[in-house]
Amino acid sequence: MERPARLLLLSELRVRNAACDVSMSRSLLTWKRRLSGPVYHPFRPSVSHSVLVSEIISVREEEEENSSKGTDDGSWKKIKEREGKDCRRAFTVLYVERCQQHRWRCAEVTFTCPEGALCQRWVGIIGEQLAAIASRPKRLLVYINPFSGKRQGERIYEQKVAPLFARAGVSTHVVVTERANYARDHLRTEAELQKIDGVVCVGGDGMFSEVIHGLIWRTQVDGGVDPTGPDEALLPCSLRIGVIPAGSTDCICFATVGANDPVTSALHIIVGDSQPMDVCSVHDNNTFLRYSVSLLGYGFYGDVLSDSERKRWMGPARYDLSGVKMFLTHHYYEGTVSYLPARGIMGTPRDAAKCRSGCVVCQQNGKLLSEKAERYEVDEASGSESDSEWRTIRGKFLAINAASMSCACPRSPKGLSPAAHLADGTTDLIVVRKCSRVDFLRHLLRHTSKDDQFDLTFVEVHRVRRFRFTPRHCQSDSDLDLRENGRRQIFGQICRDHPACGCVPAYSSWNCDGEILTHAAIDVRVHCQLIKLFARGIEEPTVFEDLANPCAI
Ligand SMILES: CCCCCCCCCCCCC/C=C/[C@@H](O)[C@H](COP(=O)(O)O)NC(=O)CCCCC
Ligand SMILES: Nc1ncnc2c1ncn2[C@@H]1O[C@H](COP(=O)(O)OP(=O)(O)O)[C@@H](O)[C@H]1O
Ligand SMILES: [Ca+2]
Q1: In this predicted model, what pLDDT tens digit does every residue of 431-488 receive, in sequence order?
Q2: Boundaries of CATH 2.60.200.40 in the chain?
């Protein structure tokens, strides 16, 4: 039998003028309305509310309302002066309330106590419990991209996020970026990281990308590791990153929280959530190019991004227009994809189970990979698998996508790889071979519906630890091939600007978390759980339904 939690305090207080039994344990604050009339009434259940202490945002003492003293003629002021501190007989608790579709709101409840001393006792005990939660950030460095999405970043931060941080007692240093890579460079060279508990970015996936590039770089340099070395075992970043969505897709926020909502993200930051995440390093011939956490897409998604950058003035709608245009253009690209399958780990890309809050697959695989790395004393991403394990796919492709997370976003609520995990040390490599327009449309539409986007003959998916792509014209083929490729490369340059001429460009570029990577040939390694977010993964409804709703007892 479950033992009842030890109570720190139990009092009869009033909530909206109704008498309640209010109790506080180390984990729960509960208030239960007292029944008037007969002690037991089967058809009139008492109403009980519970809030996890870990989801209390703050507590504050209230000045008692004038109305409760009955007059507004200065007599309340006199009483206050006479009674001094003891006049404060009410306190308000701000806490997380769950709404629909994974959104969180800041709710509040005011308790009125029979006397001031009791009120202070309550405020003291709740305050002590909150102060004891070591995972909550106290000082944050915030970067705002004023040009993300619909250019609302500054307004969103000032109106929706800053007031919540203030109420929760979180202090901030806010930097509005002045150019691309401003946040990255500031983190690399200037930011005093020892003075903060986390970094927050306000913007889209591009802003998040800047922050991880700065943080990962700085962590390696401070730890004596070469951030660009292809075979380095990169050091995990200790500072967590918060994402306030204000961009065009905001897939990193959506896939780690379940909603693109600034208030929800701010609350996840305040309560000090932590979600580890894998990071891919991307190299070309041992030259470092970029890091990626969500989508690395060649072909369709690379072309959509390149085309959409020229329409940035349109805001988020640029992706829809470029998406339709690139679908109609129907370019395919030739090359070789090689990959190291992820072996001996839990999970496959075709699983029905999804990565959710407290994911066992991520925990298990994370443990397994770090043990393996320790045993072999080599970089988990580079090393122990032998060359014989590499697999190869040659051909003509409409799209090559590596999804290191589901890549769920409002345009595609289950994402490009619905069963991909946030922190299992793998990426899902999705190869879409050349097919008819109708077939490709079937595949794309499945990104937006419940149907299985991999259940098509021209699509294959592999869970991998590492992969390479070599475009055909880079391969050491016969003279004939080289001549043909040279011709196509020239046409490619021309036809990129004149798609109507019917020639096919030889190269696409990579869409790397929404940033264009012009190198076609890349070598990608997954670094398990290299960074941490102020998030907890998407919650299953059952985790919280008992706490979210007032329960009838
Ligand atoms: C012809 C109809 C096509 C319908 C396809 C719809 C499928 C949408 C899938 C979207 C996957 C998005 C993966 C996320 C990528 C983001 O990192 C990136 C940058 O985000 P942000 O910085 O916030 O703008 N977004 C994109 O690359 C947009 C892709 C949109 C493709 C239509
Ligand atoms: N002040 C700035 N001026 C111009 N570009 C910026 C600025 N700050 C950041 N950027 C760049 O803007 C690009 C888009 O940012 P992002 O936050 O992804 O918005 P969106 O979701 O609309 O694409 C990124 O490449 C980022 O590096
Ligand atoms: Ca972007």
Answers
A1: 999 999 999 999 999 999 988 999 999 999 999 999 999 999 765 544 334 344 444 4
A2: 279-474+501-526
Residue with CA nearest ligand 1 atom 19 = 514
Assigned fold of 7-133: PH-domain like (2.30.29)
ipTM of the complex: 0.97
How many Å apart are CA 98 and CA 548, to the nearest integer?
Answer: 6
Provide the pLDDT for residue 135. Answer: 97
Q: Give ligand 1 pocket residues (Cβ under 6 A).
A: 204-206, 247-251, 294-295, 301, 304-305, 319, 323-324, 327, 407, 409, 411-412, 416, 444, 447-448, 511, 513-514
Question: Which of these is catalytic: 205, 250, 278, 303?
Answer: 205
Locus of tokens 């398990």: 528
Architecture of domain 135-274+534-553: 3-Layer(aba) Sandwich (3.40)
Token pair 């009434």 is found at 41
Q: Measure the CA angle with vertex 298, ends 296 and 284; round to 5°.
A: 70
Question: Which atom of ligand 1 lies closest to the CA of 250?
Answer: 23
CATH 2.30.29.30 domain span(s) along the chain: 7-133
- Nearest ligand 1 atom, CA 207: 22
Which pair of structure tokens corresponds to residue 529? 């759980």
Distance CA 533, CA 76 (A): 48
